[in-house]
Amino acid sequence: MAASAIPEFTGDHGTTTQEYAYSRLRNAIIVGAFAPGTALTIRGLAQELNLSPTPIREAVRRLSSENAIQVLGNRRLRVPDMSLGRFEELVHLRISLETHAAERAFPYISTVIIEKMRALDDQMDVALAAGDLDALTRINQAFHKDLYGLNPHQAVMPMIESLWLQLGPFQRQVIKTIKVSAMIDRHKEMLAAMEARDVTALCSALESDIRDGSIRLGRAILRNQAGETVT
Amino acid sequence: MAASAIPEFTGDHGTTTQEYAYSRLRNAIIVGAFAPGTALTIRGLAQELNLSPTPIREAVRRLSSENAIQVLGNRRLRVPDMSLGRFEELVHLRISLETHAAERAFPYISTVIIEKMRALDDQMDVALAAGDLDALTRINQAFHKDLYGLNPHQAVMPMIESLWLQLGPFQRQVIKTIKVSAMIDRHKEMLAAMEARDVTALCSALESDIRDGSIRLGRAILRNQAGETVT
DNA sequence: TTTATTCCTTTGTGATCTCTTTTAGGCTTG
DNA sequence: CAAGCCTAAAAGAGATCACAAAGGAATAAA
């Protein structure tokens, strides 16, 4: 229970304990290790990670400012619930923000970056075949991140990551529900548009990638719920 | 020095000490009380606010996750510097995000909210006449916030506020530099578009409001700098 | 006069301890 | 039988303390 709740992963955990706690919790949320609505306690998380409550509190505060964790009025913590309205809002925001990011990254696209992204896309096929959903999520995000990060002055990446954090807990429900074979992405289309240096086609493929990847499925699942809330 | 550095203000300071520290620091940054590049210390801020370092640390961590405060590798804190590239990126982002927010708030516009916003616009004239720049900033933000918050499922407001935080320290430099009489906003245009229920006109006026309010002035000032960096 | 080194001060970090609040469970009472 | 209350356990908040790392200043050497 303890070890399985917060998945381990290899990556940059930073230098301080607080950064370590932050990266562990952040990863857990973004890959969907916590279901929407899960209640969390600082002391409980501290015990799971074998840390004192102090760095956990700081990590939780950061995540609350990124809207990945809700701090309720009664001082209790929870992973936010998902509703149809909020879900659609988040997906629309993803499209707006990521399209914006792609447009502003566009002038910096090079053959080097296209090859790098193609390699990531290949890695996704491997992870898909292995059924490693955590890795699939992380590689998919790396693919998008590499593109948006091309713009050296970009300030949008932290906001996009906040959206990924907010969608993470629910996204996993979606991924678990559908057949893996049904998972299509538009990465090949995006790469082709990048090679053709066609910004319109790139944004169009990106929008489809986001929309296909979530909105249909999300709607289907949420519509089946009794109320507006999913747990 | 101590009392003058972090301005006091009336508003919701929350229930916990950490929330109080957060709202004081947040307000200080958003109204531009700290110049870009200012170095901060946790213990120093704690002394200024008569608190222990713990809640300050938590508030600072939250602000760092909103990109309002930079945590340097050597454990030092600073208000981020502004460069021409970053400034233009932030303004473009403001336009994208706030246009998005206005579009999605549009169906919820009512005469009640138009009147509320008109009242805020009137308050701005008062603050302008009184030369109260802090109030001017806060009322202007309340004006925009009232509009964007109409959409009950909106998730974009925290991101817009992150942008305001990032522009705050520099914005004050801009406001101090230009004559107060030159400060024009497009709020009347926005209100007219809202009354006419014209979403295109609203977004157009909003974009002008953001652009006129910052980009020309920002460019002029930053272009005059020797390098790319302003302090 | 300039540069490198050393020591002292300052600061961030994280664990612990105490205090207060909240919750949950069982009991009493209507 | 249900609703409200009381008590005990658990949790969050914040101060404090101890430790380690980073800066700055003073001194010595070139």
TrEMBL record, chains A, B:
Record keyword Transcription regulation present: yes
Domain of life, source organism: Bacteria
Domain HTH gntR-type: 15-82
Keywords in alphabetical order: DNA-binding, Transcription, Transcription regulation
InterPro entries named in the record: GntR_C (IPR011711), TF_FadR/GntR_C (IPR008920), Tscrpt_reg_HTH_GntR (IPR000524), WH-like_DNA-bd_sf (IPR036388), WH_DNA-bd_sf (IPR036390)
UniProt keyword Endoplasmic reticulum, yes or no: no
The protein's name: Transcriptional regulator, GntR family
Species for this entry: Celeribacter baekdonensis
